[in-house]
Give the backbone structure.
Amino acid sequence: MKKLQTFLVLILFAGGLACSKSKNEEKPVSPPDPPVTEEVSLQKKLPFPFGAAVNINLLKNNSAYREVVTTEFNSLTAETAMKTATLHPQQNTFNWTDADYLIEFARQNNKRIHGHTLIWHQSLPSWITNFQGDAAAWEDLFKTHIQTIVSHFKGKVVSWDVVNEAFDDDGTLRNSLWLQKLGPDYIARAFQYAHEADPDALLFYNDYGHEYGPTKRTAILNMVNDLKSRSIPVNGIGLQMHTRYTMADNNLANAINTAAQTGLKVHISELDIAMNPDNNQNLTFTASLADQQAQKYKFIVKTYNAIPKSQQFGITTWNVSDADSWIPGNYNRPDWPLPFDNAYKKKPAYQGILDGAK
């Protein structure tokens, strides 16, 4: 009996060893790999540069603003830091501080800088508006202003709005200080002076209202084509596109496509889509309005993406979020013109932009 018991114990022990060995030889089951989530941002998903005009104070001091700028955009325009009153406050004084800060931020974050703007009828300091001198003195002021700025940023700013808003809505040249003092060909000379200072910079004529109708648009296109025919170094057209959600799609398409017909680069340079053009003080931003805005952004991007790739300089929104937009303050009304809301969260317009490039 003892022998039988011993035999049974040995069998059970051996079976336990075998089971243990078998278990030890089983490969442990690894947990499944987490799903790969693709980073979505405008700068990564769009087939052309997508940018914003930026406020330097917000870039320095608002972490949410800085995060969106860093993550979403690969082309930056200075909202005010390169305008004349900021950059050239006295005849012999240039204030480079904020513009240089933007240049360094762009360098560190691998972003393109578009310069805005060398010659404009607004943002003029008193030393220019009160300047006394003959034609030669005005020409020297004009040339020195352009070339000092372009030379300072040579190799750092890839492109410039050389002349901004030189036309009135009726298609005539605006009766600006520059026209009065320098004559109608000041536009051509501005491009020549900028090109002399930085032959590698791309030079744009920038204006609003291309989508309003043919009157002003035709005058701009005729001027640009005339510059081309005279071998004036103009490389592109900036369509500001401060537009509204009620603007007809056909008008927007005509603005983009007629600019492309010049063969020059096309920059949608100051895009925003106003949602309260009637100045309704009690309007709220409903889901329906948000969807209509998204569809309008989508149409603009889709139309732009259809022009030749070699002419797609990019799209730039005028600032980053609804909280930073010029529109509510300028028109004293509630409005929501940009793809990010007051808290820097993505609105349906953001997806509309992405959908436009699909």
Notes: The chain has one domain: 41-356. Residues 134 and 181 are 9 Å apart (CA to CA).
